[in-house]
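Each record in this resource describes a single protein on a pair of labelled lines. The shape at a given residue is found from the number at the same position. The record below illustrates this layout:

***
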Amino acid sequence: MAETTMMALCRARGEARLERRSAPKPARGEAHVRVLLAGVCRTDLYAANGVLPVAEGRVLGHELVAEVITSSRFAAGTRVTAYPWIACGSCVECAAKTECTSTRVLGVDVDGAFAEELCIDDACLHEVSRGTARAHHARSAGCGARRRSHRHAHHAHPRARRL
């Protein structure tokens, strides 16, 4: 059986490039989603231009609306958005539900939303209404979510304040 591939926008060889990649496979605790819409913000531009350091080959993007392929929390086909600051889940701060000091940022520390499919921590997903504009959800899920949401304060990334 041939391996499934997809297109993704990655930081590679000093620039943002469109590349063919293997489709992701979810690890335990991760959801697998099909990206319907991804927003572009200043963080993505900084990463693409090398101002914000990201690993070679990193798939960029952290603002999205997606459809669930597999998830332990949502049925297949459910429309979701993602909180882009992914807590480690194992540190003292996470146990106390305070600000995790080991978070990873979608599209910066782990592969992001500028791809056809994405795997992300299931706990970062939030269902969105099919009746609301996709662009609204992609924009509100990304950078603006951290400023508005105290409920997820323990997921905050320490570098986010500088972006």
